[in-house]
Design brief:
The chain is an alpha/beta fold and about 260 residues long. It contains 6 helices and 9 strands; from the N terminus they run αβαββαββββββααα. Strand 6 (about 150-155) and strand 7 (about 155-160) form a beta hairpin. The two termini are about 15 Å apart.
Length: about 260
């Protein structure tokens, strides 16, 4: 993620050198790509205008792979994923400066629910939840009892749900390849919704695309967001940051930073 943030930053500067105006540059991304876009904006707000993020997630707290996290030396470190998540969430949380983002969130997203995004309360973030049920959805305290088992969640042993999703490689749950994921804390009554894979497939559906581009109901979210951001853009004497987007992470000495 840190390497991708550096690479995208260089690409933006290449476009600017070709004559593109920063007020007309927007980053769009999904999942870790969306999170990376928000990270770049957090680090250097004047670098480009805004972010269009779809299901932004990094080390999402509701999904854990069938593996044991390792540190930079290859040694087992069960808490590393939780630590990275906490640092990232704090960086993009309530204390973050303007993120100037349009975020599309999805109920029962296996990586993180709409009300769990750390930037949801940021005044510069417009968060749209699909589908809009007109009611809040809060995470339950535990799994639906009929799905509850003991296993790895958030890098440490704990209660997870036994609903399992296979990936294309179809490897066993005992494989160290991290190839299968559990849907953690899926509440009773929402199992069917969780099974629809809200994280990767719903935003590709024709129904969602029609919903966000329908002028009849005022849902032209992307067009409206870009229009407002371009009108609000003001950036005089922009000076690029000399630090890297992930410099906020207090990484151990043996972990080399991306340059």
């Amino acid at each position: 993620m840190c390497k991708r943030a550096v690479a995208i930053g260089k690409l933006i500067e290449a476009k600017v050198s070709q004559g593109y105006r920063r007020k007309n540059i927007f980053l769009g991304g999904h999942s870790a790509g969306a999170w990376t876009s928000l990270l770049i904006k957090r680090h250097d707000p004047g670098k480009f205008n805004g972010v269009i993020a779809v299901a932004p997630a990094f080390n999402g707290q509701r999904s854990e792979r069938f593996c044991i996290a390792k540190d930079c030396k290859g040694e087992i470190d069960a808490g590393k994923r939780a630590w990275l998540r906490a640092e990232n969430n704090a960086h993009l949380g309530s204390g973050a400066p303007r993120l100037d983002a349009l975020v599309f969130a999805f109920h029962c997203d296996r990586f993180g629910w709409p009300n769990e995004y750390p930037f949801a309360a940021n005044a510069s973030v417009s968060q749209i939840t699909y589908p809009d049920f007109g009611r809040g959805v809060r995470p339950p305290g535990s799994c639906d009892p009929k799905f509850a088992i003991s296993g790895f969640f958030d890098g440490i042993a704990g209660e997870v749900c036994k609903k399992i999703e296979r990936d294309a490689r179809n490897r066993s749950s005992n494989s160290p390849s991290c190839s299968r994921k559990r849907i953690a804390y899926c509440p009773a009554g929402w199992t069917g919704t969780c099974e629809l894979d809200q994280h990767t497939k719903v935003h590709h559906s024709q129904a969602f695309q029609d919903w966000i581009n329908d002028p009849a109901n005022g849902n032209e979210f992307v067009r409206i967001f870009i229009t407002k951001r371009r009108a609000a853009w003001a950036n005089v004497n922009y000076q690029p940051r000399k630090t890297a987007p992930c410099d906020f992470l207090p990484l151990p000495a043996q972990c080399q930073r991306s340059k």
